[in-house]
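Field reference: sequence -> structure
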Amino acid sequence: MGDCEFCKIVSGDAPSSVVYQNDRTLAMMTLRPMARGHILVIPKKHAASLSEMEYETGGELFEVGMKIAEALRASEIESEGINFWLADGKSAGQEVFHVHLHVLPRSETDGIRLEGPRLGLNRSEMDSDAEIIKEQFNGGEHEF
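Structure field:
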């Protein structure tokens, strides 16, 4: 994708501070960090959304993220906790339309919060929602 900033990084046409890469993934420091050590893990093959990415690559993003989390915790960078964040779609907060997993080191005092309203669903409503999703999961191409 010619106008995708992450694809330019993968091709070497834009600078980045690479932490790790292999044939399918690249992990780099983000340009707009929320904390020191904030890293993005991306697929090298362009995928604007999760539905465009192969499952194997998705699993590898999380595997690389887990290894980076271990490295952060072992480093001098403050990382009492780690958040993974992946926004899929504009309404979910995605700003760069190339899949990317944020690996965000956290501390008790960093002030970063993910807050919003909580629904008060009862068990019957949760069971109904589970059935709706299960029908698509089992009847579609998502069977395991």
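Note: The longest strand covers residues 101-106.
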